[in-house]
Every structure is written in C-alpha cells, then in structure tokens.
C-alpha cells in the first residue's frame, strides 16, 4: 500500500471518528473554527485586514506569477543580527534573557494572555507565526508589519486580507498586558517573537530559545518591498531557494520553516493555481478533487473567501505531518509540493517526515535565524508603546 493511500485512509478514518469535520475539510469562514472571523472591510485606522484596491489587485497578480517577484528580490541583505543559531549571548545585540532584570515576568505575562487567546481560537497560533515570518522577511524583525500609521504594510499584496486581523488584535492585547507590568520596556518586535515562541510551544511544537533585545522600526515598508521579499506560493524550487538565500537562509531553513504549514489555513485564492485550469500533476487525485470541491469555481465570491486547512490530518497540532503529507502528494501550495523537486530538499522532507525530533531541532535553529534578520538594537528605532503607531504619532 503506498503512502498516499495510507494517508487518505487515515483521514477518512479520522473523519468517520469525528476527529475532523469532513475529509480534507474546509475551515469555517476565514478563521479556524472559533466562529470569530476577520473582518476584511475594517479601515486601516483600526485592526483589520484592509480591502483590496485595484492597484493592489494588479500587484497581487504579479505576486501570484511568482517568478517575477523573485527576480526583484536580489537586493535584500541580512543584517548584523542574521548570523545564524550559534550558542551563547549576544547575536547582533540580542541575548537570551535580555529582559531578565528589566521585565523578568515578560514571558509569563505573554503565556497567560496566549493561553486565553488560544483557548478561544487555536487558529491564532498560526496567525501569529505567519505574522512573525512576514515581519522578519521584510526589512527585518522590526514589527513594521504591525504599523497602521503613517503608512502600513498590511495592505501590501502578500498581506492584504490574509494576515489575520484577529491575530493582530491578539498581539495588541498581549502588548497592552506587557505594558501594564513593564511600561516602555519590551518592544513590539520582541512581543511578536516571544508570542510566536509560546504559541508554537502551546500548539505542541518545540521550545525555541529565542534571543531578545529587538527594537521597533519607525516606518512601514512599501508594497513593492513586501512583494519583493515575501515568496508567493507559485514559485518553483529554484526561485524559492533563491528567495530564502536572499535572506541568508539555506535549504535546511527553507524546508524546516516550510514545516510551519503544519498549522493554520489558506484562502482558496492561493490554492486555486494548484487545481485550475488543470489539476497539478504534483497532487494526489482524491485530494485534488476535494480541494476542487472546496475552492472551485474560483470566480464564485463565496468560494473566494473560503479557507482550507494547511495540514488536514492534525490541523491545529504542531507536528511533522506536513512532511508526510507532501510526500503523499497532499500539498496545499505549489511551493510545498516543490520541496520534493530538488534532491537536497527532498532528502530533508524525507528526514523530517520520519523524525519529528530532528524537525523540531532544525525548526528551532531556523526560527532563531529568521528572528535575527536585520534587527534593530541598542539606540536604533524605538520601543513602541502601541504596536500600530510610532510613538511620535501617539497623541496626534
Ligand atoms: C516557503 C515559502 C512560503 C510560502 C510561499 C508561504 C505561503 C503562504 C500562504 C499563501 C499562506 C495562506 C495565507 C492565507 O490564505 O491566509 C500561508 C499561510 C501560513 N504560513 Fe506560509 N508561506 C511560506 C513560508 C512560511 C514560513 C517560513 C512560515 C513560518 C515559519 C509560514 C507560516 C504560515 C502559517 C502558520 C500559515 C497559516 C496562517 C493562518 O492560519 O492565518 N509560512 N503561507
């Protein structure tokens, strides 16, 4: 019996036992099962994904073609803090326990908040993890993704209406709780990184020894900068490797970090290129037909808002089933399937599929590397009081 058959049987069994709602289930609405939905029509003055404008739609098309965006990506360099996962203290001005005297309770406060937030909606763990990725890949981990003023990255094509507004609000709640005990001490950039660390842990993943000491950026990146740096889900393996290399990340980082797709959801518009106009030969047929049932026709406005689990076997558990899925040709994005198209990345996928502790170990190292991209430290930037707003605009 081949791997795909075993997987399909496993999912059918889980569905029959009521472990998952339906085979290859669609997630309800645009959130993961809590009934709490992001509101795509909220304005930029409050927390919400902002509606797609015509200009953004044009960029989105370019982003979806993938190769074009990657071709722009060459100019991005990792900063002093990108130097990998070596042990010990300072890495580009960061250290483990940076707040041990200035705010020793920071992680406890974040964990208390997150336990409540995740209990209400476990999908927030995925939302927060993706926020960290999209923050760090664009002008470094400086919390610029959280800014709503004077400009915002949230309307940029790779973020628009897909970064969870409710996860942004969750981070605002966490930051407010941290400010209540340690006013003006902990940056929003560190709040994202520590919240991600704890969200991954609470979802069953590894405990990542993140360093802290990041400071917050003063301005958001442009739409073009976001498009140039966030890989679209249509990239082939060569372009995907190149995008990660541009951020100082190698194949081990690419494969292990892609394992972040073990939790969370995808909107059908990102899945559609796999199933229309024709079904990708990369996909298991039964799985592709179910995706078609969930997502097509693409021009149906209800289907366009529909989401599906990234890992339908254990959608909310941080584990290594993502790698078994893609070996069974059960891949949500072309970029997931593409990891099996180069011998080095295929070998890593096979290793992590067999060995969860090894995946967790590499994921931790790669997350630390990603968390140190182009960080601001020392006197650079500022410690924002409110993550949506640079301090100078707070009273205006
Ligand atoms: C390798 C290149 C990557 C591509 C092309 C990619 C693309 C995407 C896309 C298109 C979505 C769907 C968003 C939506 O429809 O709402 C998504 C979701 C997600 N991605 Fe990635 N991603 C990549 C890497 C990563 C990395 C490095 C991480 C973190 C380590 C990550 C974590 C997530 C998570 C957790 C979600 C679910 C978000 C949610 O449920 O709100 N991704 N990704």
From TrEMBL:
Signal peptide: 1-18
EC number from the UniProt entry: 1.11.1.7
Disulfide bonds: 103-182, 136-141, 188-387, 268-295
UniProt keyword Signal present: yes
Catalytic residues identified in the record: 134
Reactions the enzyme catalyzes: 2 a phenolic donor + H2O2 = 2 a phenolic radical donor + 2 H2O
Gene3D superfamilies cross-referenced by the UniProt entry: 1.10.520.10, Peroxidase, domain 2
Gene Ontology biological process terms, A to Z: hydrogen peroxide catabolic process; response to oxidative stress
Subcellular localization: Secreted
Site keyed Transition state stabilizer: positions: 130
GO molecular function: heme binding; lactoperoxidase activity; metal ion binding
Binding site for substrate: 231
Residue segments, region Disordered: 29-87
CC cofactor note: Binds 1 heme b (iron(II)-protoporphyrin IX) group per subunit. Binds 2 calcium ions per subunit.
Basic and acidic residues: bias regions: 53-70
One Pfam family linked to the record: peroxidase
UniProt biased composition (Gly residues): 76-87
Annotated heme b binding sites: 261
Binding positions (Ca(2+) 2): 262, 311, 314, 319
Domain Plant heme peroxidase family profile as annotated: residue spans: 93-391
InterPro entries reported for this sequence: Haem_peroxidase, Haem_peroxidase_sf, Peroxidase_pln, Peroxidases_AS, Peroxidases_heam-ligand_BS, Secretory_peroxidase
Positions that bind Ca(2+) 1: 135, 138, 140, 142, 144, 153
Alphabetically ordered keywords of this record: Calcium, Disulfide bond, Glycoprotein, Heme, Hydrogen peroxide, Iron, Metal-binding, Oxidoreductase, Peroxidase, Secreted, Signal
Family annotation (PANTHER family): PEROXIDASE, PTHR31517
Function noted in UniProt: Removal of H(2)O(2), oxidation of toxic reductants, biosynthesis and degradation of lignin, suberization, auxin catabolism, response to environmental stresses such as wounding, pathogen attack and oxidative stress.
Protein's recorded name: Peroxidase
């Amino acid at each position: 019996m081949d791997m795909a058959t075993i997987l399909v049987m496993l999912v059918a069994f889980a569905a029959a036992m009521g472990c998952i709602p339906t085979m290859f289930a669609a997630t309800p609405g645009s959130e993961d099962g809590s009934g709490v939905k992001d509101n795509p029509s909220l304005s930029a003055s409050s927390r919400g994904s902002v509606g797609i404008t015509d200009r953004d739609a044009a960029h989105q098309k370019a982003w979806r073609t993938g190769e074009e965006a990657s071709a722009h990506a060459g100019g991005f360099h990792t900063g002093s803090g990108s130097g990998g996962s070596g042990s010990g203290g300072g890495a580009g001005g960061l250290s483990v326990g940076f707040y041990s005297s200035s705010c020793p309770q920071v992680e406890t406060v974040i964990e208390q908040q997150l336990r409540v937030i995740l209990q209400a909606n476990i999908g927030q763990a995925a939302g927060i993890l993706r926020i960290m990725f999209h923050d760090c890949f664009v002008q470094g981990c400086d919390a610029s993704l959280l800014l709503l003023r004077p400009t915002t990255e949230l309307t940029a094509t790779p973020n628009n209406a897909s970064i969870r507004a409710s996860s942004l609000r969750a981070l605002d709640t966490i930051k407010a709780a941290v400010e209540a005990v340690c006013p003006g001490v902990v940056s929003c950039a560190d709040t994202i990184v520590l919240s991600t660390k704890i969200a991954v842990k609470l979802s069953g993943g590894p405990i990542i020894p993140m360093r802290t000491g990041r400071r917050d950026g003063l301005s958001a990146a442009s739409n073009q900068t976001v498009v140039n740096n966030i890989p679209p889900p249509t990239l082939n393996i060569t372009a995907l490797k190149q995008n990660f290399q541009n951020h100082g990340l190698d194949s081990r980082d690419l494969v292990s970090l892609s394992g972040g797709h073990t939790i969370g959801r995808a909107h059908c518009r990102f899945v559609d290129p796999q199933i229309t106009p024709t079904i990708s030969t990369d996909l298991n047929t039964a799985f592709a037909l179910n995706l078609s049932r969930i997502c097509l026709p693409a021009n149906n406005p209800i289907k366009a808002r529909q989401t599906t689990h990234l890992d339908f076997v254990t959608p909310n558990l941080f584990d290594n089933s993502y790698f078994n899925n893609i070996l069974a040709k059960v891949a949500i994005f072309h970029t997931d399937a593409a990891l099996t198209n180069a011998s080095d990345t295929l070998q890593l996928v096979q290793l992590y599929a067999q060995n969860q502790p090894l995946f967790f170990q590499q994921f931790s190292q790669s997350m630390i590397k990603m968390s140190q991209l182009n960080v601001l430290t020392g006197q650079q930037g500022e410690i924002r009081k409110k993550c949506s707003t640079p301090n100078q605009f707070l009273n205006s």
